[in-house]
Structure formats: C-alpha cells, structure tokens
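Box 3.1. Reading complex inputs
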Amino acid sequence: MNKISYLAGVTAFGLTVWQGTVWIAGVPHFILPSPRRVAQVGWENRVLIGENALVTGFEVAMGLVLGVLLGAVTAVQLARSDRLYRLVMPLLVFTQAVPVFALAPILTLWLGYGMASKVMMAILIIYFPVTSAFYDGLTRVPQDVTDMARTMNGTNWQVMWRIRIPHALPSLATGLKLAAVYAPLGAVIGEWVGASRGLGYLMLLANGRAKTDLMFARLVVLAIMTIGLHLAVKRAALRMQWE
Amino acid sequence: MGCRFAQAVTDAPAIRIRGRYDIAGHRLFDGVDLELLAGQWTCLLGRSGVGKTTLLRLIAGLDSGEAFEGNIWVSDDNPLDGRISYMAQSDLLLPWLTVLENVVLGIRLRKEKPDMRRAMDLIGQVGLGGYRDEKPNALSGGMRQRTALARTLMEERPIALLDEPFSALDASTRADMQDLAARKLKGKTVLIVTHDPAEAVRLGHQIAVLTSHGLRLWQTPSSAPVRDQHAPETAIFQAELLSFLRGLR
C-alpha cells in the first residue's frame, strides 16, 4: 500500500467515525456538525476563509523564517563563545519560564492589531527550540574532529562554516520540525487576543455566533495548512541529513 | 636548550619530550624521556590508560599541558605549530564531503586555495582514483583510512602523529595500509601509537614501551622497516615484545 492510499484510507476512516458519531448519537449540529455540513459551509465561505487563511499563512511563514534565522544566528554566536553562552543562556531559559501565551496581550498592546504582533508571537514561540537544538549540534562535534581541525590550523570561522555548521544541520532540522508545528499555534493565539483578520480571528467570531460548522471548516483549513507546512519542512529537513 | 639530538638526515626535525604527567593527584607517567628520531618512525606501545595518547597529544599541542611537568624540544628550534599532521583511530572523514573535499579540508580550513591536481594525484596514489567524488559512506573501512592518509599527506607536514591509525582495520587491510603509510610517510618524523607488537616490529625504526614507571626503548631487528613479517628475526622480536607487554600487568 503506498503512502497516498494509506493517507486516503486514514482520512476516510476518520470521516466515517465522525459522521457515524453524529448519526448515532444524534448530536445537534451546533454542537458537532457533520463532515458533510462542514464541507458545504466551508465551500460557501471559500473566499472569506481563503483570504483569512492567506493572512494567517503569511504570519506563520514570516514568523518561521525570522524565528529560525534569529535562532540559528543566536546558536552560532553562543557556540563561538563560552562566555556569551554563560551570560545569555540563563536569560533565555528564564524567558521560557514565562508562558509565551501570556505575552500575547502585551504584544498586541505594543505592536498593534496588525500582523506584526502575530509574527512576533510565532517568532517567540519557535526561537528557543531552534536555538537550543542547533546549539546542541554545534557543540557536539566529536573531540577527534576538532583536534584534527586544530592541528590543521583552521581559522575559527572556517571551522565553524565547514565543520560545525554542517555537523549541526541534522539537529537544526529537528528544531525546524518542532518550529513548523509551533509557529501556527503562535500566530493563531495572537489572532485570538486581538486581530481583525486571520483564521484565528474568524474562528473566534464564528464561535461567538454559535456558527459551529463555520468554525469547524476553519479548523480543518488550519489543520491542513499545519500538516502541509510540517510536510514541507520535513522534506527540507531530509535534505539536511548527512547520516 | 641543553639537549643533543642525533644528526638529522631530512628537513623533518627530531623531537624530544621529557617529563611527568599528573591528573588529579594521580601520576599518569613519570620519568619519560623519548626522542622521536628525525625522519624516522617511532612506535609507542604500552597498556591501555598508561598515557600513550596523552604523550602524543602533548606533542601535537592538543593537550593543555597543565598537568605536564617537563619539556618538549625540537631539533631545529622552530615551533611545532603548523608542522604536524594527525591521524586517529577513526578516519575522521566528514560524511557530508566527498573524498576529494575531505582530502583538501585542511587547506580550506586555513582559507587557502587548494591545489586540486595534487589532491587528485594523491588520491590516485592511495589507490582511490575512481572514488574521488564518492562520499565516505560509500567506502569500505580500508578505503576510508586510505582517504585519511591522503588527507594527511596533502598537509605536506614534516611530522606525522598517528594514534592507532590502523587498529580498526581487518588484518590484511591493515598490512596493506602499513605498507602504504610507510612508503608515503618516508622521511617524515613519525610517532605511531599502537597496541600491536607486530605492527611496531614491522614499522618502527625505534620502539618505545610506556609504563607508569617510565619509558623503555625496545631493541629493533637489524633490518630496516618495513620488515618482512615472515623473517625469523621479525617473528622472534615480535614474540619477545609481546611477552614483555604481557608481563607488564
């Protein structure tokens, strides 16, 4: 059985269980709408959902790119200097003690209702996992290899560029895969706290008006986006493996 | 300096290390006085944990030297930094680079421009001409270690420090590698740490055995290395050396 038919099978099974539950339990549609109803409502609202999905998608993509870049640069700097690591790492760990979600209202206050606060949420949520995964890889080059590089009189930067960074790419890939799952979370929470566009905002709106079917439609779109992002990042991560 | 060396016959210097080494109040070795003869192979044997690798790392400048009380002299009075190439038990090939890229690694790490023709020539000399664009994963253990040898040769350094470079290879590949390395490193000052008396007797111009009480030079056969392992004299020296090593417990 190939991957696609497997995926189709799992999806069909999930939909069957969902539809079956609705039928057998007779749940009212404002509690749990049937998949058919969700698909119908989703199709009717496709333009609205599409526009807002683009907004959320853009926030996620921006957050991911900036967060990974920032995390990677931080990791390289920390790996270059023990002193910097000892100074900065406790601070980073401390910031992790504050739940990022709790910062969302403050970010909205500072950066406004637009995209910036959501991008910042996504950055904050992925920055630490990326930094710490990449840093681990950078500092775990086998002793023998660093010894060899030293007898070769390599410059620090060349050793970083040609040995440590390539060696750490699989670790960075692990961080990236986590980031791809967390980034949409950050963006959507940002939208819940205060926004005028985006899937998170739409979901909150639909929830308030008891339009459960519409909410589910958006949820499905968000899930598809997240899975798509995860798969894309997984593919990219595969290229970063040398083992 | 106050240290006399045997007459050097090549531009490779002789190196003498003398002193003792303590780790955390525990004496690793004492009374060591070892001269690596200029342009010749010195084989260093001894039980595990007696400090052979530490001695090698001291010469390579890889050990901080804080625990070492003693001196290292070089016959031409020039610093050792930049004149040493290093080979370890594992090949240390970078898996994301091809054979050719691995061979020129040192030059690239120094941000110099590698002479690719020379690199390819060396790869051919170690018998890997058809594999220069392969990644290490595609090679056998022996081929990987030959790549490592080509990388060592590419460095063009007069001193080679080899830390059990052939111990992970099967017996026949090991013998091939010993021949190849002896040919290619001819004229360099070589220190090879080994656990194998046969290897030491085959390759060594000089054989030293490190014990916790000090260093003992072991007599070598009168023939020149690489010695024929079938020669009765070689076999006798091997057996005697092995007996001596077994008695060190």
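In summary: The radius of gyration of chain B is 18 Å.
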